[in-house]
Every structure is written in structure tokens, then in C-alpha cells.
């Protein structure tokens, strides 16, 4: 919880500045930033992050954030990771109309009502509030009815905590549940016949056109830049080794050392 009297933006700790964003991305204009990874920097204030109006992919995990106010202006944001912070609410995300994936495990969300602000996000399909592998959760996940309440509150979700609940793949989960139910002892006098249903929904096997994504294009560009930097560093290392070999060799003789 926030200390008494503390307002959003006044928490002690590093904050996001234009200089930080430009140094991390190499972009001159904040509006041009599409992908941003600010993981584990101890950030307590989002600062000018709301000025990155073109941002589509954002990783703020492993910081000390208590509020998400500036994110309300990021209408293009599609993927957000705010896991392992100190958040007690997600209200600013109600304005992120294009949000598709949200990871908020490891925060202080205490009741399902704090997820009500996400109900209007028609694009939201993936939600993670607990991550057993990383040992991250939220207080509301301790409730026995947690799973059912989240599904009822956000019926558009396809994946909750890494488990598919609707769409492709969910049929297998449902089939296993149905088989488990049919094998349980029944109080009825005889078996009940049920109408056969298709395993997959109509159109499951139809091919779908792959759409290009600016996120993928930007990721490929950054990968190519990183690869080029590796080549440059390798060339510099070879030049340094050659110079060292020449300096260590006795004058007028050929070095017998192999580097």
C-alpha cells in the first residue's frame, strides 16, 4: 500500500526521463518509440512515459511502481508487463483501448473488483495475475473462486495465467473436464445419453492470413543492429589481439605464440 500522504509521482526512487528513454532506444522523438524494455531498474515514477504515444510493447517488470497514471495516454499499447511491482490498482489501463496482453503477477491486487477497470477492453485476451514458476502472485489469487470470478468478469479472455480457456486449444481442456465428470460416480439410476458435439469450433481448420506487425518489424530491426554491433566488436577484438601479438614478439623474430 502507498504510505499515508504519498501521492502518485512523489515516490522515492528513479524516474523515467526523456534522456533515459532516448538512451535505451536510440530514438530522438519519444513518439517514435514502439518497443520499450525497462525491466529491473528500480523505477518508482513513470515520469514522461505518457509522451510515447506510439508505444505498442512495454516491459516495466521488476521495478517499484505503485501507480500507472501516465499509461492512460498510450492508446496504441498492445502488450504490457508490470509484474513484480507494488501496484494496488490498474485503473489507468481502462484507457488503453488496444491492450491485448497484460501480465500483472507479483503485485498487491487484493480483490476481483480491482479488475473491473479492464472490462471495457475489447481487445484484451491474455491476462496473467500469478506465475507459479517465478513465484509471483496477487492476494486475490488466494480465493478458491478466483478463476471463476475472473472468467465471469472478463469473458473475452482466451488465456488466464498461461492456461487457455477459450479459442484454439481450449477444446482439449474442456474435453478432459467432461471425461473426468463422466467417470465420477453418479446418483442417477442409469447412464444419460448426450448429444454429440464437434470438438472444434467452425472454421478451426481454415487457414488464416498472417498480418505484418510493426512490433515484429521493429524487433527484427533491433536484432539486426545488435548483430552488427557483435560483428564490429569481434573485428575490434581481432585487431587488438594482433597488435598485442606484435608488441610482445621480440624485434626481428616471428612469434611462436598462437592466440
Descriptors:
single chain, seven-stranded mixed β-sheet, 7 strands, globular
Could you provide a short overview of the structure?
The protein has 259 residues and is an alpha/beta fold.
Describe this structure in words.
With 259 residues, the protein is an alpha/beta fold. It has a seven-stranded mixed beta sheet with strand order 1-2-3-4-5-6-7. The longest helix has 35 residues. The radius of gyration is 26 Å and the shape is globular.
Please write out the topology.
Blueprint lengths: L17 H8 L9 E3 L19 E3 L19 E3 L19 E3 L22 E3 L17 H8 L5 E2 L2 E2 L5 H14 L30 H35 L11
- Compressed to H and E, one letter per element, the order equals HEEEEEHEEHH
Judged by helices, strands and strand pairing, the structural class is alpha/beta
Name the helicity range. Answer: 25-40%
Question: How does the major sheet shape up?
Answer: 7 strands, mixed
Strand content: 5-15%
| Count of runs of 4 or more consecutive helical residues | 4
Amino acid at each position: 500500500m502507498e504510505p499515508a500522504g504519498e501521492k502518485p509521482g512523489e515516490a522515492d526512487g528513479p524516474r523515467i526521463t526523456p534522456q533515459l528513454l532516448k538512451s535505451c532506444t536510440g530514438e530522438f522523438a519519444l513518439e517514435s518509440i514502439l518497443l520499450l524494455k525497462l525491466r529491473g531498474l528500480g523505477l518508482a515514477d513513470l515520469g514522461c512515459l505518457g509522451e510515447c504515444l506510439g508505444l505498442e510493447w512495454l516491459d516495466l517488470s521488476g521495478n517499484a511502481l505503485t501507480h500507472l497514471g501516465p499509461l492512460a495516454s498510450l492508446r496504441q499499447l498492445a502488450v504490457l508487463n508490470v509484474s513484480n511491482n507494488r501496484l494496488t490498482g490498474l485503473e489507468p489501463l481502462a484507457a488503453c483501448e488496444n491492450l491485448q496482453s497484460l501480465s500483472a503477477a507479483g503485485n498487491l491486487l487484493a480483490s476481483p473488483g480491482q479488475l473491473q477497470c479492464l472490462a471495457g477492453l475489447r481487445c484484451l485476451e491474455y491476462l496473467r495475475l500469478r506465475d507459479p514458476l517465478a513465484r509471483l502472485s496477487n492476494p486475490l489469487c488466494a480465493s478458491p473462486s478466483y478463476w471463476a470470478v475472473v472468467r465471469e468478469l472478463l469473458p473475452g479472455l482466451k488465456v488466464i495465467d498461461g492456461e487457455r480457456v477459450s479459442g484454439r486449444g481450449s477444446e482439449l481442456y474442456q474435453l478432459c473436464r467432461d471425461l473426468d465428470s463422466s467417470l465420477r460416480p453418479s446418483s442417477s439410476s442409469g447412464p444419460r445419453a448426450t448429444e454429440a458435439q464437434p470438438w472444434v469450433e467452425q472454421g478451426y481448420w481454415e487457414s488464416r492470413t498472417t498480418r505484418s506487425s510493426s512490433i515484429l518489424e521493429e524487433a527484427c530491426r533491433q536484432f539486426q543492429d545488435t548483430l552488427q554491433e557483435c560483428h564490429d566488436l569481434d573485428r575490434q577484438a581481432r585487431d587488438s589481439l594482433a597488435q598485442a601479438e606484435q608488441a610482445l614478439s621480440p624485434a626481428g623474430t616471428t612469434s611462436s605464440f598462437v592466440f
